[in-house]
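4.2 Preliminary Data

To establish feasibility before requesting continued support, the project team ran the inverse folding procedure on a target of 126 residues. The structure was first converted into the token representation described in Section 3, and no sequence information of any kind was made available to the design step. The complete token record follows.
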């Protein structure tokens, strides 16, 4: 049995018509010439992704009356809620049940801990 080796032909353009040596000797680099465009598009896509990720972190705070209403509903119906609140310089999430209102604070019982959160710090409830 004879093995047949397939050879790839390099595509070349006949430039013998040109009187200039530079044009006749030109060798196309193929896809390499598009690298700069691809890199630029990738960088732009990454920058857009990072910007959208930062925008996602900016959560609109619920109005105070709506926060009170949702806390009241959770307390009355004993429904578990997720509370996002501003704690120092970070957002904190707590899952639990509203067990008590104390002055301007709410006590939320989680499975592992009891949280006392100022109602003014609450940003979102779901």
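Position-by-position output of the design step:
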């Amino acid at each position: 049995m004879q093995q047949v080796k397939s050879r790839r032909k390099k595509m070349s353009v006949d430039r013998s018509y040109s009187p200039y040596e530079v044009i006749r000797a030109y060798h196309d680099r193929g896809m390499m010439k598009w690298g700069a465009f691809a890199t630029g598009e990738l960088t732009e896509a990454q920058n857009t992704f990072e910007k959208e990720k930062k925008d996602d972190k900016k959560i609109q705070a619920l109005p105070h009356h709506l926060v009170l209403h949702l806390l009241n509903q959770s307390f009355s119906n004993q429904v578990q809620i997720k509370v996002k609140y501003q704690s120092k310089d970070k957002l904190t999430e707590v899952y639990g049940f509203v067990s008590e209102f104390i002055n301007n604070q709410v006590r939320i019982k989680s499975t592992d801990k009891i949280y006392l959160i100022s109602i003014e710090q609450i940003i979102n409830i779901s």
